[in-house]
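pinging the channel bc i need a second pair of eyes. not urgent but kinda urgent?? the chain im working w is below, pasted from the shared doc
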Amino acid sequence: MQGQLDTDLSELGVRQAHAVGRFLAPRRPWMILSSDLRRARDTAAALATEVGLDVLTDTRLRETNLGLWQGMTHSEVDAQWPDARQQWRGRPRWSPPEGESRIDVARRTRAVVDELVHQSPQWSEHPAVIVAHGGAIAALTAALLELPVEQYPVFNGLGNTCWVQLSAHPRPGGADHSVVDPEVAPVTDAARDVVWRLDQWNAGITTPLETP
């Protein structure tokens, strides 16, 4: 279980990232923002080569801190903490020993997106590409869609170099007309005026990989 262990991206992962970059290039992304962990940062660097952008990093995009579980196998965790992984996967407020809950991850990652919405006039014209990790992306997606916390586990199982596409739209009636009061609420005024829609989940490409 990796969590925030800083592992390397494989050669296959590099080739996959370049292929995704070539696929995304015609959409003219205006920025690439990445977790600072090497496996995400190297993915972002490969994307950046294909689209002609620099990579910015933000530690808030790191994967879930799994605490004492990091570096252990599933069987080792199950032997020492029976049924704990099931609790972790099914209860978003539950955290591994000395680790983070899904809600913790949703709050820190959502803040990154809310700040981008607030700071960036190009937001509605071309996509921003955020390179992170499966658990962090799942928590972020649930938070942006303002799902009830109990429904956060519906998002799981993101493939390597697969992506999620969300689009921001003006909230009908503005921030004062929010239908829900999410536990992981927007942190900027501009973000409160936005409602997010899920366009794609776990999307990927099937074209042959080329050596960069």
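so The radius of gyration is 17 Å. and The chain has seven helices and five strands. — does that match what u expected or am i reading it wrong
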